[in-house]
Specification:
It is built from 16 helices and 32 strands. The chain is α+β, with helices and mostly antiparallel strands. The strands form 8 sheets. Strands 4-6-2-13-10-11-12 form a 7-stranded mixed beta sheet, with helices on both faces. α9 runs parallel beside α16. It is globular. The termini are far apart.
Length: about 725
């Protein structure tokens, strides 16, 4: 099915199943511990061996020698795989990190060897006996020190262009009566998902099967084939359940490659799980940024110039953190400039993490908007409303398909009680606590991609849906089942969903906030084809037919759906592809965040009290699972604002807080009452589902809203995340 004109009415619009807050259909499996994750599979074709990955102990240099003698003599050892005996290894199309160090070491924690033994404990013990000698070289580990060597990166497949210019930014900024010129920093952050990077691999001849936690299975098969030098058609990846990813399991990483190499070496299945320190130092992370934002405005508050420059670092050939993305879309202003710069750093690879680009960019842009509002003497909500636009700021002829940013801000302000906010900072107290409110706008792109599915109807009236889409705990199983149930007119318990197998029809997978809208659209297309097959089988005219309550009806004739498959199962497969509506319209999701918090006047302790998110993100396919996505994102935003930071040891060239003890994330006690409001919105230019994604929108802007609330509480502006008490304790207002 090809989608190239705005959608009219269709069966999804009935909203009998789609749009309803139904429970996750995989919920009982998760809560009872019976959902089987990659590393837990047992029916794998033999008794597994275990691989343990030894990471490089230096940040930059080369391996001069590896003495394996003691390790090979250790109990249970079956093989040791290094760059010397692994064969020629390539690099995938998405990540640039090499799977094995040798002889060069590109970063601390890069896999040096995989020790394979009968048990995990034996493999780990033997790995400690490897004698690896290194020659250290001078590395670059700190962004601030490498900033002056940063260059303009090349165009990337994802993210904004490295530079953009509209009008005369420098001239307009210089002429503006009110200006802001500030620099902000965001640190490196880790995905810190619950499930580790852990895989099982088995070879059957030249056919490789891997159970692995990979978000985009089509990318995974492609990249594993490129790394191993085999055809992706010879690779099957299975990921029926994934215990969190946030972009950190986008495609193939060290666990999957190590398992495949080890299984080939020993001729039997091998299980490999990365330790937490290796997850932090040998997989990917959100890179640190240095961002300069300049805004010029007339005295009435209209922005006349806006410029955003961002510096980040990565391995040579790696991607830049596209922090300027939001600035290109969010506010009006005739004169505009964005620039990205990329420095070479010898740290683990920086790559996609939930809302890459927008999340760190909004952490700074939305502080700058608050600072500018204060300079102008305008309420922060009103300043944002004043600079709204219904057309893409860089393409005035291109309207937004839907843009309810003003509605999000207005409704959020009313619901949150924004009118009670004291504009003058440091003026509201509750005992020893300084109280403040903060707000921030939210924006995240609404991409959609080709997606395929297969649907089958059996003689019992059960619908089975098959696609290689993945579920990271996001609710993919449920919204896909809702889509099929709505289209075929059956109850939700009459739908079976099979996901996470690269042999199934190809979807774009989970990531980029495209998963929900894309995968359900592919299911819609397949269901349209199955409806046509059913109609033909039962002698109906396909254009004048209704599927409801397990029956097919036209006029006075009503037939049970299952009768269409009485002589044998019916199946249909199709994919949804797209025309140029995304070129005619700017597709984005919008929102607003509001936060109230307290700062202890004596200790500087920050305690969140209330959080509200208002989201406009197309049709909400399941309000319950969507709310779960947004409140989870709000928690993530709280971590980014107040505690998360990958601390670099510039001597060793590594992240030293490389586990869940040293890398702090929020816990239940850190998170207060959360409220989520979804605005009524359908976007018929997106797809027949009229839906967009929402899981990353819920993160964008949260950290800035918290930062702005800290300022409102204390009168102290912190521009370097995370906002820890050492950055403002000595500047708190005098105690009462």
């Amino acid at each position: 099915m090809h989608f190239d004109t705005p959608a009219g009415s269709n069966p999804i619009d009935r909203l009998k199943v789609v749009g309803q807050p139904v429970n996750r259909i995989d919920g009982s499996l998760k809560t009872t511990g019976t959902a089987t994750y990659a590393y837990e599979h047992r029916d794998i074709g033999g008794k597994p061996a275990y691989g343990f990955v030894l990471g490089a102990a230096i940040g930059k240099g080369r391996i001069s020698s590896i003495d394996e003698s003691r390790a090979r003599a250790a109990p249970g050892v079956l093989a040791i795989v290094t760059a010397r005996n692994a064969g020629k290894l390539g690099v995938g199309a998405f990540y640039v990190d090499r799977a094995l160090a040798g002889p060069a070491v590109d970063h601390y924690g890069q896999a040096v060897a995989v020790v394979v033994a009968e048990t995990f404990e034996q493999a780990r013990a033997a790995a400690s006996l490897l004698d690896v000698r290194y020659v250290r070289e001078q590395g670059a580990f700190e962004l601030a020190a490498a900033k002056d060597l940063a260059v303009t990166p090349g165009p990337a497949a994802f993210g904004p262009p490295p530079q953009s210019a509209i009008g005369d930014f420098e001239g307009a900024f210089a002429a503006a009566p009110v200006t802001l010129d500030q620099t902000y920093t965001t640190p490196g952050q880790s995905h810190a998902m619950m499930e580790p990077h852990a895989s099982i691999a088995v070879w059957r001849g030249d056919q490789l099967t891997v159970w692995c936690p990979i978000q985009q299975l089509n990318w995974g098969a492609r990249d594993l084939g490129l790394i191993l030098g085999i055809s992706k058609e010879n690779i099957r990846l299975l990921a029926p359940y994934i215990g969190g990813g946030f972009g950190g399991k986008g495609t193939v990483l060290a666990d999957t490659v190590a398992a495949a190499l080890a299984a080939r070496a020993v001729g039997r299945p091998v299980k490999v799980a990365l330790t937490r320190p290796l997850m932090f130092n040998s997989t990917t992370h959100r890179p640190a940024t240095i961002q300069r934002i300049r805004i010029g405005a007339a005295r009435d508050g209209k922005i006349t110039a806006i410029g955003h420059e961002s510096w980040s670092g990565n391995l040579r050939g790696g991607r830049t953190e596209a922090a300027t993305a939001s600035t290109r879309w969010l506010y009006a202003g005739a004169n505009r400039m964005t620039r990205l710069r990329l420095a070479v750093l010898d740290l683990a690879e920086g790559n996609a993490m939930r809302a890459p680009g927008e999340a760190p960019g909004m952490m700074t842009l939305e502080i700058a908007m608050d600072e500018m509002a204060e300079k102008l003497g305008i309420d922060p909500v009103e300043f944002r409303v004043l600079n709204d636009t219904q057309f893409a700021p860089e393409e005035p002829q291109r309207p937004f398909s839907k843009r309810q940013l003003v509605e999000c801000l207005r409704i959020g302000a009313e619901r949150f009680g924004w009118s009670r906010r004291q504009p003058r900072p440091g003026m509201v107290r509750d005992g020893h606590w300084l109280l403040g409110m903060g707000t921030a706008a939210a924006i995240r792109g609404a991409p959609i991609a080709k997606s395929a599915a297969r649907v089958r109807l059996d003689r019992h009236g059960v619908i089975t849906v098959e696609t290689d889409m993945t579920d990271l705990g996001t609710g993919s199983y449920t919204i896909i089942a809702q889509t099929a149930a709505e289209m075929m007119g059956v109850a939700l318990d009459q739908v079976v969903v099979r996901l996470g197998d690269s042999r199934l029809p190809e979807s774009p997978g989970s990531g980029g906030q495209w998963g929900a809208a894309s995968a359900t659209s592919g299911v819609y297309a397949a269901c349209v084809k199955l409806r046509e097959t059913v109609a033909q089988k039962l002698g109906f005219v396909a254009t004048d037919i209704d599927f409801t309550d397990g029956h097919v009806q036209s006029g006075e004739r009503r037939v049970p759906l299952k009768e269409a498959a009485a002589q044998g199962e019916l199946a249909a497969q199709d994919e949804m592809t797209y025309g140029d509506l995304s070129k005619q319209y700017a597709h984005q999701t919008f929102g607003a965040h509001f936060v109230e918090l307290g700062v202890n006047a004596f200790t500087g302790e920050i305690r969140l009290r209330r959080m509200l998110a208002v989201c406009a993100a197309g049709r909400i396919l399941n309000p319950k699972t969507a709310r779960s996505q947004v409140i989870g994102a709000m928690v993530m935003g709280a971590g980014a604002a107040l505690m998360e930071e990958l601390v670099v040891d510039a001597r060793a060239g590594c992240f030293i807080n490389h586990d869940l003890a040293g890398y702090e994330v929020p816990v239940h006690a850190d998170i207060p009452q959360q409220e989520v409001i979804f605005l009524d919105e359908v976007d018929n230019t997106m797809s027949p589902m009229k839906a967009k994604g929402v899981g990353e929108l819920g993160l964008c802007g949260v950290a800035a809203a918290i930062a702005n609330a800290v300022y409102n509480a204390t009168g102290v502006r912190v521009r370097d995340y995370p906002i820890t008490l050492d950055k403002f304790l000595d500047r708190l207002p005098g105690q009462a």
